[in-house]
Amino acid sequence: MKRLLLWLIGVALGVVVLLAAVLGVSYSFTSEGAKPASEVQFAGQELEPNGWCWQVPLLGGQVDKVFASPRTLTVQKLGVLYDAHPAFALPEWYSYGPLTITDSAGNVVFEGTAATYDDFLFPANGDYKAELTVWRLPENMLATQFEGGSTGELRQDVRLEKPAKPIGWYYYSFRFTLQASAEVELSAERMEQGGTVAAAFTGMVGETAPTVETDLGNVKAVRLGSGWRAYIPVAYNAAAGAHEVTFTVGGETVVKNITVIPKDFGTVEIEAEPEASEAANTEFRNAVWPLYEQPAREKLWSGGFACPAENYMTLVDFGQTKVTGGKQGSKSNSTKLYTIPGDPCRAPANGVVVLARNLALTGNTVVIDHGCGLRSYLYGLDALSVSEGQSVERGQAVGALGEDLTMDFKLGSKSVNPWLLFQTSGGLFWKENG
Question: Which of 385, 400, 395 is nearest to 306 (CA)?
Fold first, then answer.
């Protein structure tokens, strides 16, 4: 029995010695090269780490070896950058990156993460300093749980992932001078009547919205991603030929031309309609017309629009010249559909209901603001199921249809072709998210 006990003790000691030897070899051969490569870029320039701390797993993740370098006062100088939104390129192992940017006076202009920086606009051209810490953490670990340590120190592995991987951070400190110049890009320089031209503003600094002046309509710009976007309507009755558009961006003026191409929308025979009362016209003007001039809210739609009626027959199409008793009248700025009474009237896209009431001229009326100055006007519903101020999603019922539905899609006060919206065609879907 005594011999067996001594043998077991010997075996245990041998195992301990063997493990110690393996740990020693593993420790000796694990160098700083086991850390992840920093591979962080800003505005296409490689950033130099200014301090780091990494725990590299040994023995299959039983313990970690620490590699550390303290932060210093060194600040990397990147020089002059001409892009209004210099972008970060982060390594594949990146999981978290707190970022702070200060101006030359030491005021914090951005405090967040490298991910939320994507929607940031610099307040002005000038000198800036940025501090970024790029972390690699297991999925269920917080930065506050990281222990760190001194170079060469052994730490217990957190054991939150298999196989174990290095955990830690690199710190970067860098300065740069921003000297951006605004640019305007159009989705198209020629557009058929009824279409829409998008204008993308890049190279901008500051929060002042660009302005757009044109005889094609009242155009308002909104923030979209790291820039601004405006949508210019080419109405069904816009004059054919060149139209000058003047963009004022951060004190700079850019002039471009949009050429309107005429389109033959055809004609349609309709019966004479009784004239509306002055009271009905006044009520409509007071309720609907002010919406044309309302400020543009943020973009709410995504992808193509849905036709408000699922089952329909077109009675009067957009842009058609109305003929009554053989006499030609005006062109139609809206589309009139024959619909099935009781069927749901669907929201064409995400938006906010800005009008939902019964009007003497147009019956039960719903107007949805989809952002960027685009609104859908739905007239002649049998019943309403939404209220003003309510947010709606694409396809959501906003009421019940009657025998016919009149739909009008306007940018500001100018009507655009609804079928292009349903087909995801034209400037409204150009570079849709930025």
Answer: 395
Tens digits of residue pLDDT in 232-246: 999 999 999 999 999
Task: Describe the strand order of the beta sheet including 397-400 as a list of residue ranges.
Answer: 344-346, 397-400, 383-384
Amino acid at 153: E
* Token pair recorded at residue 23: 């740990």
CB-based contacts of 399, cutoff 8 Å, min separation 6: 344, 345, 364, 366, 378, 381, 382, 383, 384, 385, 386
Q: Is the pLDDT higher at 51 or at 252? A: 51
With CA atoms as reference, report the closest residue to 182 among 109, 247, 256.
247
The pTM assigned to this predicted structure is: 0.74
Q: Identify the CA nearest to 132 among candidates 85, 89, 83, 179.
A: 89
Report which of 343, 336, 402, 391 is spatially closest to residue 368, judged by C-alpha positions.
Answer: 391
Tell me what the mean pLDDT of segment 355-377 comes to: 97
Q: What is the pLDDT of residue 156?
A: 86
The token pair that represents 56 in the structure block: 């590299």
